[in-house]
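#onboarding

Welcome to the new folks! Below is a worked example of what a typical request in this channel looks like: someone posts a single protein sequence, and someone else replies with the predicted structure as tokens. Don't worry about understanding the tokens yet, we'll cover that in week two.

Example request:
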Amino acid sequence: MTAPVLEVRDLRIAFPTRTGDFARPVDGVSFILHRGETLALVGESGCGKTLTSLALLRLVPAPGRIEPGSRLDFEGRDIMGLDADELRAIRGKDIAMVFQDPMSSLNPVFTAGAQIIETIKAHESESTKAARDRALGLLREVGISDPELRIDQYPHEMSGGMRQRVMIAMALATEPGVLIADEPTTALDVTVQAQILEILDRLREIRGLAVLLITHDLGIVANRADRVAVMYAGRIVEEASTRTLFEAPSHPYTQGLLESVPRLTGPVQSLKPIPGTVPDPARWPAGCRFHPRCPKVMARCRAEDPSRLALADGHHMACWLAEETAR
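Example response:
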């Protein structure tokens, strides 16, 4: 396999607390992403998914910080070692992001076209006319009807699906190698969700994008992602190919997520929500962080932090049950 386009090793993000200590909502995350593939990062709200994505662009909001020892490599370059100018050259050009809420991400006082044109001109020396022509082409590419009209409209004049398409067009304006899509279908109806995801799939195939898809919805992962990394309490607890994860989920948290999703086929079953909530990052539980909610908890889980073990080629899990499975 070719070298990964993006490699994250031991990513830790810390926020100071009122007691003088630090909360670490992202605490030791590692994954790799290859060109032309989609990696889905899934988990409940509060697990650290969005913060992980912001760290890839060094956009962690103050007073948070990426801790020393975290490694973020893009095409062999250490993002943590870049100065401000070098970082600006990568951010938005080589690594682009589609944010969760387009209404708050788009500037309400500028037209959609003006914002796409600004993105193009920030990274490339093109005339305004050439940049506008490219913006029109991008709007067509993401499926916006009548782009000649829409390019001069303001965000409030567009539907949620159109605004999300504009966000995708902005992200693709400089032909990045990595696209981060943070909950790209939030607050959209089911039909528009499918359209947005189909656009991302098509663009990945045409452009060879590496896509990091962040979501809490396992339903959109099944047919969209090549691999899935399940995140809980600041850590990745299971990672596998999408097919393996859905056919043989091994971590109790992954099993709980799948059992809480409605099924359209098979016998009628009651949904089984996971009891409790994600713990406070300033007070992670001792041992396995999932043990207060885990139906398979053992005494060892309450005292010892499980290490990441391989169940099979490409299938890893951080759970003491992995040792039992290996035996």
